Every structure is written in structure tokens, then in C-alpha cells.
């Protein structure tokens, strides 16, 4: 993410406003569950605030409650225990990364095929686009269970959902990228008598790197979403998605919110990581941005 | 003639895939419960038209479309505010970028908790999922016009609203349509996933879940087919609208 000059202050102000609105919203929204306690404590402003912001099963938890919950589940429990949030993050992260790698390879492979064969490009492209209008994410849980019934269990089925979601932006971006070298450069390769493979390796692939990274940032974010939704079927016992479902069925508000925050933090971290590798790689390649 | 050939290649590939699926289902004894053959699914679709239509009404017409319209309009409205007040844009754009990469389907259980039963939580999930892509794209689109064109507007002494309607909004249209297309898929996903958490007793997501519970996979696949078809038609309509609105864009000029 490029930071513009003079962005820090506006972002800070907007965030501050959001937090204040959040705290204020807690009062009327938690009234349903907290009103009885407020009255018991004798009413008044102080009782209203402390009860609305510290209820154990709130309709909407106050920000500091989420921070405390995160602290307790991340730092106060050993990471290999089931109660630790880090353990669930790892479960989700591992299938995200596997799916991301598979999807990227598939996307690049498809793009190379499409660039080299006009017939394949005509036959495949409409289906690649159509494949994305299917709400695959919505049927992901079913696919997991079907694969589980045939004996595919564990990491791979979840990763396949991520793969399916990932390959699309990579394929589209890479087709654009592999086509991006100018005609004059391709002609130069021809005068060198370069084979299609050599042209690919020495001209097309290097030229496509900036496009690849742009796609990868989108791909990793949706790979994570895919992994989380893939964990939603009732059989799942671990992962961010499973925490959401368990929290939802048992009315454990804090569990849902902390899982959501953990998922968001992972998304931000992964996108930042890809962006970081992008900057390093492009700098090494001498691409000016 | 060329247009026909462009249609023929993908159509042929599609037919080959469906035939291969059918043959595979008959040749290898895959249990019907797991992967029904296309002919079985087609028969199910034919036999369950009223049920499928009812679920379509419950999910698409009651949740997807209203949520998509509300989410997109809200995103556009906030983007216009950002365009008017630069301070807001500089504050919201990084946050919008951040939020649009988040796994926002995860808010579904919270929405169910807040809005209870009925269609409201499903609409809310769709609104939240579609808001940020529209915000980010529309802000980018509203900045897409060049300095030269904006200076021309200034030399005409055009007001903010006039410059908006005659220059910046039309220039933003390709970006806005991009968001509308992304959101059409997201809206379908949001509405169906929200039904997994919710307590609705009809709808495509609900039917898939119960169909799965009772091992009637042909019904699940019938719903998937309807969802895929709906998604494709939704997308195709947007592409047609885009062509009509942004006919001036280089990618449509011949």
C-alpha cells in the first residue's frame, strides 16, 4: 500500500471517530442485556458506562474487551493448545498458503497455455471468467464434506477451495503480463532466432512480474477468505472459520469478534508481506515505480 | 462468421466437459450420493421447479438484489463525499483498502446476532461485503480524469456539481462498473453464506445445507446450478449495461 504524503493525520482522525462511535453505540445496543444490571447498580452515568462496556456476553463488545480477549487467547495460552487463538490461526494459515501456492502455479500455467495457443485462449477464457460467477465460496462447505466422504480429509480439501479462488486473478493478470512486451521486443527475440521457450523465459516472464504481484495481492486475500469459509461445515474443529461457527452456535460474542480480528490481522499481514516481496523484487529488477 | 467461431470453441469445450462428467459417472461407480451425473441433476431441476423458484425468490430477490443496491449506493455516496472533502478521502481510502482485503463474510454470525431471524441479517451481510469494493473503486474512478480536463472545467467556471456530472462521474464509470461486477459475485456469496448461520427456513443456502444433511446431493447440485446460472446472468447483464454506458472507452472502440 503506497502511503501518500499527509495521510497519517486524516487516517488517525477517522479511526478515532470510529472508536468513539463504537463506544457510544455500545450503550444503546447493549441495553438489551445490560439494562437490568444498570438498574441494579443504581443507574446513573457511571453505572451505565461500566455495565455497557464490560458485559460478558454483549451484543457488541467494546474495543478494549476485544483487546483483552485477544491478549488472553494469544499470549496467555501456549500456542499448541486448542484454546489458543494462534493454534487456530495456524490451521487456517497453512491451508491458505498451500491453496495460494497451488492456485498461483495453476494460474501461471493456464496463462502460459493461453498466451501460446490461440485456440486454447478462445476455448478457455470464457470458462475461466464464467467459473468466477459461480458463488463457489458459498458451496465451499459442501465441497469439503463431499471430498471428506471420499476420503480426502485434512489440509487439502480446504486448500483446494483457496486454489479455485486464487487461480483466477493470477491467470488474468499473467495473461496481461505475458502479452505486455512490445512488438519491437518480440521482433528482437525473433531476429535472435529465439525459441518460444526462450522468449518466454527471457522476455515474457520478466515483463510479467509487476502484473504477477498485483494479482498475488488479490489472490492471497481471497485465499484466506476461502480457507475460513471452508472451515464452516459443522465437522470442522479447528481454524478461524470453526471459531466463528462455534461462537455463533453458543452465543459466545467474544469468540466471534476475536476470531474476526485475528482473521483480519492475518489478511493485512499476508497482503503486506506480498507487497514487501514485490518492492524488493522490483527494486532488484530495476523496475522504476 | 468470426463471432460464431468465437462462440463455438468455448461451447465445444463446455459440451466435452459435461459429456466427460456424465461418462465418468457411469463408467466409474461413483456413489450417486457424492457426485450425481449431469442428467440426474437436470432431471432434479426439472422436477423441483417450484421449490427452486421459491428459494430463488427468497435468496436472490429478497437478499442479494436489495443488499447489492444498498451496499453499492452507500459506497458510491461515501465516495462522492470523499471527492468533495479531500481530508475525508485521505482518511478513508487507506481504511477502505484495508477493509476490502478482509474476510468480511465472517461478519455473518454477528449480523445474525444483531438482526435476528428473517431476511435482515442476510441483507446486512451483503451490504457490508459490497460497500468497500465500491468505495475504493469509485474513489479511484473519481480521480481518473486528467488535470487537463479538470482545468478545462475550471476555465468554464463549472461548479463542483457541474464538473462532477459532466466530467468526473462519466470518467469514473469504468471503475464503478468494475465494482458492480465484483460485487455481483460477492453479493451472491454473502447471501448464501449468511443462510448457513441464520435461522431462515427457505433459501438457496438453507436448502443446500439441509439437502446435504439428508444426503440428497442432487438437490444441492440443482441449487448450485441455479446459483451459477443466476451469477452468470447477473454478470452478463452488467457487462451489457457497461457497454451501453461506457461506449466511449478505448476497450470498446473498434
Textual characterization of the structure:
The complex is a heterodimer of chains A (289) and B (254). Chain A is mainly α and 289 residues long. Chain A has two domains: 53 residues, no CATH class; 201 residues, MetI-like (MetI-like fold, Orthogonal Bundle), CATH 1.10.3720.10. The radius of gyration of chain A is 24 Å and the shape is elongated. Chain B is globular. In chain B, helix 9 packs antiparallel against helix 10. Chain B has 254 residues and is mainly α. Chain B has ten helices and no strands. The interface between A and B is large, with 59 and 54 residues.
Summarize the biggest pleated sheet of chain B: none
Q: Number of folding domains of chain A?
A: 2
Reading the helices and strands of chain B in chain order gives: HHHHHHHHHH
- Oligomeric form: heterodimer
Query: Treating each run of at least 4 consecutive H or I residues as one helix, how many helices of chain A?
Result: 12
User: Which structural class best describes the helix and strand composition of chain B?
Assistant: mainly alpha
The backbone outline of chain A, from C-alpha atoms, is elongated
- The CATH first-level class of the largest domain in chain A comes to Mainly Alpha
**Secondary-structure element series of chain A:** HHHHHHHHHHHH
Percentage of residues in helical conformation of chain A = over 70%
Radius of gyration of chain A, CA atoms, in whole angstroms = 24 Å
Low-confidence stretches of chain B: none
Give me the count of strands of chain A. Answer: 0
Largest interface: A-B, 59 and 54 residues
Q: What is the average of the pLDDT values of chain B?
A: 84
Shape of chain B: globular
Mean pLDDT of chain A: 83
CATH class of chain B: Mainly Alpha
- Tally of contiguous helical segments of chain B: 10
Question: Could you name the CATH topology of the largest domain in chain A?
Answer: MetI-like fold
